[in-house]
Amino acid sequence: MSNWSPPPIWPQTPRRRQGIWNYPRPYRTGIRAWIPSWRFVVGAILTGTSLVAGVVVSAWINLPVPDELGSVRSETTTVYYADGKVMGKFAAQNRTIVALSDLPAHVPAAIIASEDQSFMTHMGINPLGIVRAALNNASGGAQQGASTLTQQYVENYYIGVGEATYADKFREAILALKVTKEQSKEQVLEGYLNSIYLGRGAYGIEAASQAYFGHPASKMTISESAFIAGIIPNPTYWDPRQGRTRRPRPRGGGTARSTSWCSRAPSPPTTARPRSSRS
Question: pTM for the whole thing?
Answer without folding.
Answer: 0.70
